[in-house]
Amino acid sequence: MGAGAGVSGVRVTADKATGVAVVTLDRPERLNAVDLATAADLAAVWREFRFDDSVRAVVLTGAGERAFCTGIDRGAEVPQPGSPYMVDDPLLTVGPKANDLWKPVVAAVRGMACGGAFYLLGEAEFVVADETATFFDPHTTYGMVSAYESMYLAQRMPPGEVARMALMGTAERISARRAYEVGLVSEVTAPGEAVAAAVRCAETIAGCPPEAVQGTVRACWAAREAALSQALALAPHLVALGNLPAERQAELFAARRPDGFRVR
């Protein structure tokens, strides 16, 4: 890889010879949770790639061994309007499609991917995971509606599997192997090999004519875009009506038992 650039919690490296850029969530001490600065940086990276013709494919991953991403950083303060018809969600702009980037993005997952991580995985073309990866959605455990996350997952997994993940909360995690079986993951690698496998895929894709590649990305997204857009339009109301007050969520989060789950 060539020289890297980093701002806040995002690190970018690009190899102009292959046309592949690697975007790394670089907050391992926070399990790569996304704070407001990182959300803004992700949006900026995707929008910059729109104008960089030397980048023809992207790999998205997380730093460290413990997590790909654990969603929104609970320390982030996001003021909310006092209306169920308006919800400010900073994660809505962290993905490539939300920023009008139609270059292919391959996600490489090691360790935990949970909650708001599905905003990112939901806008990747496909997901490569190593054997340490686990996937879960903690929202219901902490008195929160899994709305956006479930809607993104429903584009990749059978409805029953989405419902089980969302409703079981922190009680159960899906292993990389099970995620492969239900279609969330397209390839499972040995521990520590997900990024290398994703880069190999990205290099192959980057070697094809970019107009054809980007048109194919757009076509694949169009096949599910209408249903997803309609579903996402309901999400703010479901979140506003179903979430417990923030102080009660914090109480439930503080009382969590990290080891009280099983991997399926």
TrEMBL record:
What keywords would UniProt list here?
Answer: Isomerase
Q: Name one Pfam family in it.
A: ECH_1
Q: Which GO terms describe its molecular function?
A: isomerase activity
Q: Which InterPro entries match?
A: ClpP/crotonase-like_dom_sf, Enoyl-CoA_hydra/iso
- Which top-level group of life is the source organism from? Bacteria
Q: Does the keyword Transferase apply?
A: no
Q: Which Gene3D superfamilies match?
A: 2-enoyl-CoA Hydratase, Chain A, domain 1
| Family label | Belongs to the enoyl-CoA hydratase/isomerase family.
Protein's name in the database: Enoyl-CoA hydratase/isomerase family protein
The organism of origin for this protein: Streptomyces cadmiisoli
